[in-house]
Amino acid sequence: MTIRFQLALLFMVLVSLILTGFAIFAYVRMSIEAEQDFDAILTSRAITASVIVLEEDKLDSAKYNIVKREFDVSQLPEERIVVMDFHNTILFRNDAGEPRFFSSVPSALEAVQKVGSLHFTQEIGDKEYRTLYQRYHDNNQEFVIIVSAVDKRGMETLRDMRRILGYGIVGVLLFSFGAGWLFARRMLAPVDVMTRLAEEISAFDLHKRIPEADKNDEISRLAHAFNGMFDRLERTFTAQRHFIAHASHELRTPLTASEGELEVALMNESLPDGAKFALVETLDNTRQLRTMVNDLLLLARAESGVSAISQENIEFAEIVFEALDHVQKRFTGRTIHVNFENFVGENEAPIYIRCNAELMRVAVQNIIENALKYSANETSIMVSIGFGITQTRQYARLTVEDFGIGIAEEEQERVFEPFVRSERTYDIPGTGIGLALVKTIITQHDGTISLKSTLNAGTIVTIMLPRIQGSI
User: Fold this and answer.
1) Cα 237 vs. chain centroid, distance in angstroms?
2) What is the predicted pLDDT for the residue at 345?
3) Which of 114, 132, 398, 402 could form a disulfide with 371 if both were Cys (CB 3.0 to 4.6 A apart)?
């Protein structure tokens, strides 16, 4: 779950809690007010009923008729009215003799005699009645007026309010989530930029930096901290590369001289066999050390970045053939099959790539040499040259397949690391730098390298490099 989603969800939850609390308060408040308004209507109906029933003799007929007509016209829904004394003598009723509307609460008569009036709600059947017991004094006699009715208007109002609040809460929640998402997106936009730039920065382009806004907020401080870290990493990597390059350069001259002196010494035919054997071993070790020093120099050069090495547009097959020439001089007698699959494009044009020719030849040569070195002398290897097309790019492809000892699955991820060698190859001469150098060169040229291997069955290495559009 992303931070953006969490912030939007948190904002929605916070708004929902506030809105729900307000909605509950508003609904309860309206419910209380609706009940109080209806109680006031019931009280008015009780007083009017008491006048009509108990004070008919005190009003002239015209006024009585007006009051009676208004009373009948303003009848409430499901209204039931009973006028009685405290001896249960009924003086008036309009409930068609249904005692349940006033006898369902036996203690109500006792309570109203003490407090004067009593309001309560009772459910009769599937309806909810609001009931009033009102004490009335007339001619030194106590009466009780019972008015019961259904507050349809109040219930409809509350039902409408529930619907409005429900739809409103859902709408506000969706709006708050969208607003929270946009707000979080806007606030975290600098973090997205920093993430994208940080992912683009590698050991080969540590000179890149994350833009710092002219603010003193957390995002700006984070960007400043990242840039400080990149500064330190760049200085460390630069110092490491310079050390490797200078040390390798200083070592190469004496190693070359030592190799020449050993070769001259071996020309002396009078040397004892033991001395000659020791000189041969020393010469082999010197050559291997010189090879390692040369590889380290090439690695330091490749890691210096594309901008620091010269590049040119060159035919891909030309590089492969040059590498094959160097390999065949070292591995004489070995069979290398070359396969051209889709070597030319639609217009019979060669495949060109932009690269440093020397470094690319070294990369291709190392892959082919590894295929020969880790396979039996009687076996052959297959070198396939071709091209491929995707939706966004065209690329040159080189595949080298051998039928040698293979690489264990758990070791395949680490073979591109410097000085990493399989235990099964310790008896085979090598420096452990070759594939690391290849990966660095290919990566610096915006290419990819992949490896598939099965123990005792062989290895397939594939490199893909961008094809120059102008050469199609």
Assistant:
1) 32
2) 45
3) 402
